[in-house]
Amino acid sequence: MAEEIRITIDEFRDVLYQKLIKHGALQEEAKKTSEIFALNAADGVISHSILRVWRLLSHYDNGLVVPGRMPVFVSGTGAVARYDGNGTSGVLSASFCMEKACELADRFGIGMVALRNANHWMRGGYYGHLAADKGKVAICWTNTRANLPSWGSKVSNIGNNPFVMAVPGKDGKHLVLDSAMSQFSNGKLEVMRRAGKLLPVDGGYDQEGNLTRVPGDIEKTRRSIPMGFWKGSSMSILLDACAAILSDGLNTASIERKMQKDGTDEAFLCQIFIAIAPEALGESRLEEIEASILDSVHNAQPVKEGSPSRCPGERVFRDREAAFRDGILVPAESWKQILEL
Amino acid sequence: MAEEIRITIDEFRDVLYQKLIKHGALQEEAKKTSEIFALNAADGVISHSILRVWRLLSHYDNGLVVPGRMPVFVSGTGAVARYDGNGTSGVLSASFCMEKACELADRFGIGMVALRNANHWMRGGYYGHLAADKGKVAICWTNTRANLPSWGSKVSNIGNNPFVMAVPGKDGKHLVLDSAMSQFSNGKLEVMRRAGKLLPVDGGYDQEGNLTRVPGDIEKTRRSIPMGFWKGSSMSILLDACAAILSDGLNTASIERKMQKDGTDEAFLCQIFIAIAPEALGESRLEEIEASILDSVHNAQPVKEGSPSRCPGERVFRDREAAFRDGILVPAESWKQILEL
Questions:
Q1: Of A58, B7, B255, B279, most Cβ neighbours within 10 A?
Q2: Helices marked H in chain A — which ranges?
């Protein structure tokens, strides 16, 4: 078990702000980006906040991110629009596009933005929360480099393409799904390896071609299992096709080819942001429906006595409250590295 | 292995047409319904065509379907609309709503229809093909009765909520995902049980609480596994919440309660139909992107030599061609039962 230290959310936010400025970010973008990363850390998603700081800053260093840029409108009509990432930081371009989708939903009941040439959006769930905070139902996803073998393939040829769905909840307690198409995200493999833990179920293949629960072995072979075997594989392919076609950007295979050719980090991604304004459809018993769903999940007879089933997003709000009160535990080594960046 | 006989697609369509008329359907709806069922059978989805005829006809007998009905507009504005199933046959109301979503997409670039009080739509993939035939990218899903335990629950409390994504392909060879949130659909369990086969991976629990590949044992306990364990469980919950809230209809727990109270078959479902017109977003290298994706999937080094990885929907077109040419193999007993209905 790696050593952990406790830091406050404000401390993380302020350190990240200073590091972003140091690496060339403008004040406004450093402010917004550090706040998003701090919230993601507070929500317990260490893999896509604390552990991704080096990567975020490297994007400023290597020119994938150009300070001060915003996504550029390419084309579109009515309730749909296509944007180009234009060197914007990934968290900022994704936030911008989800906000645009929400504006379109306010006008048309539903809105969609297709973004191409995007940098890594880090934690996808954030954009679901962003839309749900505005009272919107949201669906969004990104494609990725080739980091997952399709079902029946021995080599990584599809993306783990994180997929997000969000429904606004009472008192800000939204239902938010944030799911990579692999059984475990790369971020999760990293967190489990660092913690010296085994995965709860098989997550991929080791170098002998056997299924394994050892996260580091899977990171080595890059042979993760798609969630639900052929099901996650198929869904990954559709998410990639939709995103690349609607944004007229690069599909996973083309992203991978470009990365190998240019020797760059994962970039030039395609993302889809769909927002729906429930009130445009008429009255809805939103609170009653959510209460019924929560009740049916919480009060079902559990497999393990005392471990009730949960709804996606519930852990987040418990973690967030605790994190803003008590700070968060992070790997001491990771924090030391951040301070040196 | 149960005895199988070969019938032609036309024979199935004509027999079903006659049976529908006999059970009260009007000519026009019998024609359209029998054509949809015939196509689903040709596409190799026996579970949701041949094996569902008795159920379709029972809906006419027990009054869940009222001949001649169509969905009724409830409310909505701009690119979104809410409809009520109004006793329409499930395949007809779902077709109607996907067509409406496509019309909205023609006007606004994207369109969504939320349908409540719907009867069972049978094979979800059909509505993806329907939209893709019109050149649309489509996403649709339905909620269901409580037929799946949420992750950590011992009893069925969530739905397997089939989820469909479709992207139009060259020469009608669309990419179509049609995936229940359980690792295996109930239809698949039935088909495998009838064929006396084991599932390729664990699909649920037997009566001793052990994971099993025996389909009949899972049908008995009704303890299927969600695809990807907690991932399919979470996605099922979000699909249910979205569908019920946007249509202001019944969520899975409420559907189950109503079924138990009224002693009826699965009905009063909520369905979402989203269609996107790619051309509204501008030019797109659709064929080039799809060719790249197909290539990266087909030509990846396979786990089993000679068994290349496949894209969702590919089997369907091979099956469809063969079925229209040679007919299809169906369980002899099932066909005999249809003829007696």
A1: B255
A2: 9-22, 27-42, 53-61, 90-108, 125-133, 186-194, 215-221, 230-247, 252-262, 286-298, 314-326, 332-340
Could you tell me the two tokens for B182? 């359980």
The residue out of B280, B305, B325 marking a domain boundary is B280
What's the mean pLDDT when you consider all of chain B? 95
- Please judge whether A284 and B246 are an interchain contact, meaning their C-beta atoms are less than 8 angstroms apart: yes
Per-residue pLDDT of A236-276, as tens digits, reads 999 999 999 999 999 999 999 999 999 999 999 999 999 99
What local confidence, expressed as pLDDT, does residue B14 receive? 98
Residues B57, B82, single domain; the answer is no
* Chain pair A-B, CB pairs under 8 angstroms: 292
**How confident is the model over B87-97, as a mean pLDDT?**
98
Phi, psi of B140 (to 5 degrees): -150, 155
Does residue B256 sit in the same domain as residue B163?
Answer: yes
In a domain, B276, yes or no: yes
- B230's enclosing H/E stretch is helix B230-247
For the residues A79-95, what does the mean pLDDT come to?
Answer: 98
Q: How far is A197 from chain B (nearest CA, A)?
A: 19
For residue B1, name the pLDDT band (cuts at 50, 70, 90): low
ipTM of the complex: 0.97
Among this protein's residues, is A129 annotated catalytic? no
Q: What pTM does this model have?
A: 0.97
Residue B295 counted as domain residue: no
Do B8 and B156 sit in the same domain of this protein? Answer: no
Q: From the list A80, A137, A154, which residue is nearest B302 (CB)? A: A154
Given a cut of 70, whether residue B273 has pLDDT beyond it is yes
Q: What per-residue confidence (pLDDT) applies to B132?
A: 98
> Could you tell me if B161 and B130 lie in one domain?
yes
> Who among A139, A280, A286 is closest to B76 (CB)?
A280
| Of the candidates B272, B243, B242, B236, the residue with the CA atom closest to the CA atom of residue B111 | B272
Which pLDDT band holds residue A1 (cuts at 50, 70, 90)? low
Dihedral over Cα of B316, B320, B326, B330: its sign: positive
Which chain A residue lies closest to B278 (C-alpha atoms)?
A246
Contact (CB<8Å) B109/A78:
yes
Do B231 and B116 sit in the same domain of this protein?
A: yes
Residue B288 forms part of a structural domain: no
Mean pLDDT, range B206-213, rounded to an integer: 90
Query: Does B122 lie in the same domain as B34?
Result: no
Q: Coil, strand, or helix at residue A250?
A: coil
Residues of chain A neighbouring B158 (CB-CB closer than 8 A): 296-297
Number of independent structural domains in chain A: 1
DSSP letter (8 states) at residue B50: G
**pLDDT given at position A63:** 96
Q: Are residues B98 and B26 in the same domain?
A: no
Judge: A153–B75 Cβ closer than 8 Å, yes or no. Answer: no
CATH number, residue A46:
1.10.1530.10
Q: Indicate whether B299 belongs to any domain.
A: no
Shared domain check, B37 and B157: no
Structure confidence at residue B186 as a pLDDT band (50, 70, 90):
confident
- Selecting from A238, A248, A295 the residue whose C-beta is nearest the C-beta of B175 gives A238
Range of the domain at B55: 1-68+314-341
Chain A closest-CA separation from residue B20 CA (Å): 34
A176, A201, A235: residue with CB nearest B229: A201
Sheet hosting strand B110-118, strand order edge to edge? B72-75, B80-84, B110-118, B269-276, B137-142, B163-167, B175-179
Distance from CA of B19 to the nearest CA of A (A): 35
